[in-house]
Each structure stands twice: as structure tokens, then as C-alpha cells.
Amino acid sequence: MIEHEVRTYKSSENLPREEQLAWKIASVATDPVEVEAEVTDMVINRIIDNAAVAAASVRRSAPTHAREQAQAHPTEPGAPVFGLAVHETVSPEWAAWANGVAVRELDFHDTFLAKEYSHPGDNIPPILAVAQHKGIGGKALVNAIATGYEIQVDLAKGICLHEHKIDHVAHLGPSAAAGIGALLQLPTEVTYQAVQQALHVTTATRQSRKGEISSWKAHAPAFAGKMAVEAVDRAMRGEGAPSPIYEGEDGVIAWILSGPEARYTVPLPGPGEAKRAILETYTKEHSAEYQSQALIDLARKLGGQIEDVSAIEKITIHTSHHTHYVIGTGSNDPQKMDPTASRETLDHSIMYIFAVALQDREWHHERSYAPERAARPDTVELWHKIVTTEDPEWTRRYHSTDPDEIAFGGRVVVEFKDGSVLEDEIAVADAHPLGAKPFAREDYIRKFRTLAEGIVAPAEQDRFLELVQRLPELSGTEVRQLSFAVEGLEHTGSKGIF
């Protein structure tokens, strides 16, 4: 890996294109490096993972409305949309939109946490949609997805967005554009312009994940993917973009991030170096914000040791800065303690999540969020006894790159009314690569089967799984079949502009 220093330059300094971060990203995308076997296997796993969570969400409001919007833009050859017959194709940017919402709706696919947070599986819908529209085969698709993951992970390692209240999808626009550039084997110049354009139009605030969280949380990454497709299309036609988008005097670093004096270091593969970043990412066993994954596992364990939760006086979760301030009591969001809050809000409330997981000793993507579950009096009482606090050691471990130290969990102290105390801690989720039960291919397949049960017919499940596991050898025609249909899928009949 090469460490690239990135800073603001005055317009009079005339920073050469080859020294700009967007050009370096484009150079990685256009470097024809062979994809390693274990990377290929993980790409397959994550396509399965995306399809699993899309199946579980396909009938929910946001994916349904996004699908209805996409259906207003039929195109041949086009790309399929989750839930519809694979021959019912739409324009690729709209397929990226609809499929992106379905994948993101339940907050249940993969994650990477570093200086910035990310869900790199969000790269798959736009890259796959373009491959399907253009009739591109599986081998090129694998390389493109590996590229999208590489760029998003590397940006997340080097540039923190959330400290400036910028949403993490600002790293997704460039990574998806880079992945599409790799897919289409575009010149570095074209990919460079697309990366810059994609960043320019996908930079938004984090209010989508603050206060009363709405369904836009699921739409935001899908919008970034849609914009990436459009950015590449414009660049291919010869159109340019704001340049240099990162380093410019009025660019992202100078006015949106840490300012003209700031220095960022972004690691990127050198020429001829394999793109392996997907192997550093991890999926979710539970449908909730990633920092809750390990704590759900710990709550299930502690639940088996507590006979009477009404005997609890207080629960304190000692954890990282991010967990405390984003999904904990440090957020100062009263909505996170509200039994009538939206599902999107509850999945960003570790207080609610920990209470339910402790009581039920499980976490379910539907039952655990049901309004009647959230309103249960004994749950509300327990929920309101839970507080979080930042522990500097857990924050340090959160940002560590040492496998022996890395941690996304916390230490939990349960105080009982009789004065006794129960205490335990967990570093990473069971499903994490460093966890007690790391996810493997059979786990991804089980997750797909479980979430698709009663939604996707068994024969259709079989067809999809058989196809995706042959990904590197698939023809362009076969890649177009990488979706699933849902029998009897109903629509809302809602009306918008189109």
C-alpha cells in the first residue's frame, strides 16, 4: 500500500492531475490486477448477503416505493429489480436506486469501521446494475466489486467525515464510480472525472442518522449509487467535473472537512498490487447498527444469567466514543428512549436494543422492532435504566488496527437493587472475522434462506444461489439473472410525478 498525503492547494499552485487523490483513485480502478481467489469468494458472499436482506425488506414501504419509481423507467436491455421478474428490466441507475434501498432498508448487511464508518456492500447495487445493462460477465464484475470495496475502505481509513457531520455516503459516490470505471475498463481520465462528479453530488449531512431517523437512511446510499452511475455516464460522454474536488481551494477538504491546513493520509494499492480490502470488512448477524452487534451477543449471554430483570437498578455500558455519541445516551436524542419511535430510530438506540436482547435472548429483524414489542411496559422500564458512557480505552481499541486489540463492543455493568453487580465485556461480535463464530459461506447461505423464507419461493432461492456461486464463470446473459422474483408481490398504488 502507498500512503498518500492529501491537503488543500491554492488555485495558483496548479496541482498536477497525477498528484490529485481522485486521479490516484482512478488509477487504482484502471489497474488490471488479477483478483485473488479469497477475494472472489468474499465478493460472492456479499452478493448473497445483499440479496438476503433485500428479500427480507422487499415488501416494506421504502423498497416498494423505490421499486415503483424504478418501474417508471423501463429499459432494454436494462437491469432487473429485486422482487420483479428478471426479464422486467429498468434503466441501470434506477435499478441501482431500487435495489440499493432494498439492501439498505433493514441495516443488515456488511460494515467497515475506521476513521469513517461505511457499509461497502452499498457498492454492489450500482456496479451490478451497470454490468447487467451492459451484458458484462462475472469475472469483470468480481474485479469491479473488489475495486469499489477497496476504494471505500481506503477512504474510510484515511478521511473522517462524521466529525464534520457529513454522512458516510460521501465515500460511496467515489468508490462506486471507481468500481463502474473498472467494470467498463474506462481510461483513467474518464474515471477520474466520474469520481470527482460523484463526490460532488453525494456529500450530505448526517442529519439522516440523527434525531427522528426516517426511511431516508436507507435511501441515502441508494441515491449515492444512482448518482455514481449518472456521473460515469456523463464522464463517458466527455463531460468534466469540479477539479480538484478534494484538494481545491474551494474543495471538500477546505470547506467541508478540516480546512485548508488539514492533512489526510489515504492508503491505496500501488501499481500491480491486489485489491484485498473486502477481506477487512464484516457482515451483520443481527439487523441493527453495527456497534450494537457485539453488545447484542453479550446481552443474550447476560440474559441467561439474570432470573428477574425487574431486580435491575441500572445498566451502564462502557464503550467507544462512536457507540456512546451515535447510538447511546451521549447522542442526547430523546427519540432513542421513545417507545413510539420509528424502526430506523430504534435500530440506532443501543439502550432499546440491549434491553430487548437481554429479555428475549435473541434479536429478530421484525419481532424485535414490532411496535407492541417496543411498547411493552417491562421493556420500557428496563430500557430507561440503561445508560452509556465513553471509555477512552474502548475508543482507542475501536481505532486500533491490531487484531489483538480491535474492539467494537464494550464493558457492561449491571447493578441490582440488592447491591450486587454483574459485569462482563465483549470486544467483537460473534460473526466478526475475529469473533467466536466468524461468518463463512454456509452462514451467508443460511442467512439468505432464513430471510427469504416465505418470501422467495424455494426454487427461486435455489436458482439464485446456484448461479451466484459460479460468479467468475458467468456470461453476461447469466449475470443478468442475478436477482430474484417474488410471487404475488403487491404494490401500493401510490402516485408521484412519474
TrEMBL record:
Domain MmgE/PrpD N-terminal: 19-263
Catalytic activity: (2S,3S)-2-methylcitrate = 2-methyl-cis-aconitate + H2O
Pfam family, one: MmgE_PrpD_C
Sequence segments annotated as region (Disordered): 59-79
Residue span(s) of domain MmgE/PrpD C-terminal: 286-471
Molecular function, one GO term: 2-methylcitrate dehydratase activity
Top class in the EC scheme: lyase
Subunit composition and interactions: Monomer.
Protein name: 2-methylcitrate dehydratase
Organism, as annotated: Sediminivirga luteola
